[in-house]
Each structure stands twice: as C-alpha cells, then as structure tokens.
Amino acid sequence: MLALVPLCSAFAPGLSVAPRAPRTAVHRAPVPEASLGIDLKGKVAFVAGVADSAGYGWAIVKALSEAGATVAVGTWPPVLAIFEKSLKSGKLDDDLILSDGSKMAVPKIYPLDAVFDEPADVPDDVKNNKRYAGLDGYTISEVAAKVQADYGKVDVLVHSLANGPEVKRPLMQVSRNGYLAAASASSYSMVSLAQKFTPFMNKGGSILSLSFVAAERVVPGYGGGMSSAKAQLESDTRVLAFELGRAYGVRINSISAGALKSRAASAIGGARGEKTYIEYCIDYAEANSPLVRDLTADDVGATAAFLSSPLAAGITGTIVYVDNGLQAMAAGIDAKSFDGYQFSYPFEMPGCPPAPVPE
Ligand SMILES: NC(=O)c1ccc[n+]([C@@H]2O[C@H](COP(=O)([O-])OP(=O)(O)OC[C@H]3O[C@@H](n4cnc5c(N)ncnc54)[C@H](O)[C@@H]3O)[C@@H](O)[C@H]2O)c1
After folding, report:
1. Substitution site in 262, 277, 322 for ligand 1 pocket (most atoms within 8 Å of beta carbon)
2. Beta bridge pairs of residue 47
3. Burial label, 111 (beta-carbon count in 10 A; 0-12, 13-18, 19+)
4. Which of these ranges, 17-31, 67-81, 88-102, 106-120, has the smallest mean pLDDT?
5. Domains in the chain, start-ordered, CATH in brackets?
6. Nearest to 299 by CA among 27, 63, 94
7. Which of 182, 258, 292, 307 yields a CA-CA distance of 20 to 30 A from 209?
8. Is pTM, for the whole model, over 0.90?
9. 74 forms bridges with which residues in the sheet?
C-alpha cells in the first residue's frame, strides 16, 4: 500500500508542516484604515540616504511625514555637516512645508555610512578622516541599535542611497574595486539594512528601495557597475520578500524611478555649467515617455507612502515603475533615425490634440 506523503516533505524531506485547520471562505478583511487615505500615524520610519531636499529621499521623508509617520534619517558623514547647516540656517525651510501649510518636524539625523556593517569594518583612514572624526556609531549595526534604543519598533525602512565611484566608465573599463564598491554601497547596503533592522520591525512593516530601469535594460552612460548593482537590488528584493515575509511578516518592494536631477545624479557627468548627463536623460524621458508631464520627486514620495502603508498589505517582492511609463517604450520617437518619418499620432480622435500638418 502506498504511504501518503505530505507534498511539502516529499520536496524537502527535512521540513515538517503543521496540519492546518480547514479553510473557511474569507473574502473580506477588515479595512486597515477607516478610509482609503494613507494613514501612517503612530508609525516610525527610517530613511537611509538623505542629505538635501533635491533627491528622492527627501520627497519620501515628506510623504511619510505628510501621512503622519515619525521619520528619522540616515546621512552619509561626508555630507552631514552641510546638510545640518542647511537645515539650521533655514535654507530648507520652504521644503519643510506640508500640503496643509504646516511645517514638517525636522527628522532626527543619524550619521550613517552604509558600506560598513560593524565598527571593526571601518579602516583607519576613514576613522581619521576629518569628516568622520568626532562621529561614532555610523556603521549599519550601530545605527540600527541607536534607532531601536530611541524608538523601540520601526514600521518603515527606506533605502534611498547609491554610489558608484566609476559610474562614468563603461562596464568594459570598470575595475574590480569600482564594480564591488558600487555593489557594496548601492545594493549590499540594502541587504545589510534589512538584516539589522528587520528583527525590530513590526509585523506588517515595509522595506523599500530605489532602483532604476538600467537594472533590466541598457541605459548607455549609466556605467561603473551601477546597472549591475541595481539588478542585484531588484533580485534581492524578490528573495528577501520570501525570507522576510515568512520569518517576520515584513514586506519589501523597490521603486524603479525615472530620471531626477538630484545631487547624486548630477555628479554622473558634465562639468559645472555644462548640460549634465542627467539633464540629457530627463530631456529624453520627456520626449519619449507615454505621459507628457514633468516627473517629480513627489511622484515617487507618494508611491513610497502608499507602499509603506497598510493599503499595500498584500504587495511584496515587486518593482513598481514611477517613470511616466518610459520603461514601456522600446523605441525613442525622437531618435535621429526617425527623422522625416511621419508618425500616425497625435491621431484624429475626439478629444485628441490636432495632428501636425505635414511639411
Ligand atoms: N536621480 C535619478 O535619476 C534616479 C533614478 C532612479 C533611481 N534613483 C535612486 O534613488 C536613490 C536616491 O538617489 P537620488 O538620485 O535621489 O540622489 P541623492 O543624492 O538625493 O541620494 C543619494 C544619497 O546616497 C547617499 N550616500 C552615498 N553613499 C552613501 C553611503 N556609503 N552611506 C550612506 N549614504 C550614502 C548620499 O549622501 C545621498 O544622500 C538612489 O538609490 C538612486 O540610485 C535615482
């Protein structure tokens, strides 16, 4: 006679699965919030990678604050003093104003260098560097311990940082050190943050990172192994979704964002005063995206707030594009190769703008 083997142990002999009660039909769960508004009141968020108000990190801080969360940030030591000075001097005051006219609380700032996991990892030349001297506890494990001591539990963790020292070089010319440095700062840092923070995150909590379409398609000019780092980030998002979901009930997603003229992106290429690489990227996106509108950092902030909220309770392991739809295009309609071709749009349909008159 055949023995009945539970399916799971047939696949993984070491795993035993507790028998579960018969399922009852559950079509409705209690609505997590009274309405479909994003409500993060009482939640604590930590956003790693904020040093000015121009980037995606700041927009995410604002959106989470707008939804009622208490937000703290992690700032890279080399830019910490200038960030603190900008906040103190009132230079960023306008950027603190929320949609109801109130002023957002200035987030608590933790010095954070996300390429170091433990104090023993910090080399002497960094310890003695004038930008790090006088600071302590900026490795990921130390920052996690400080945040836990200050807030207890955390609900939202955002990784909004990247660094690729050889970003201007094509992959064919990237050194091993440059490639690994990009991966260390831009993708392993997310894994490490997840490792150190998740144990004190509330069940139902959310982790989010910022990716770029170069993870999956070729974006010429985005070099230095940064495309590889973003591909890792996206793959790790899927694997961690499984591991964190099973172990902690925590979700993890990534936003694949469109081009934004942030400080980091402006450093990719173009001398001061010249049109920079990111400005070309923004022009390209505007000329070719399905949606003809400016992409703003707040577009990403709003999506981040949604993904961090109980409204997204069933979403994990996904890459969400916030790019005006550019990733859907396989051809640039403003490419020189199409010069002279009369595209059949705008087309004549009720409500459409008039078609251009052929020359
Ligand atoms: N700007 C874009 O066009 C664009 C597009 C898609 C995705 N992204 C991603 O968005 C995220 C935020 O970047 P951004 O463009 O808004 O620029 P940004 O300059 O606002 O943010 C990058 C941050 O990373 C920090 N950082 C660098 N190395 C660090 C380290 N070792 N430890 C801690 N912090 C470190 C910088 O200090 C900076 O605050 C990044 O992951 C970036 O790749 C940006």
Report:
1. 262
2. 73, 158
3. buried
4. 17-31
5. 37-264+295-324 (3.40.50.720)
6. 63
7. 292
8. yes
9. 48, 110
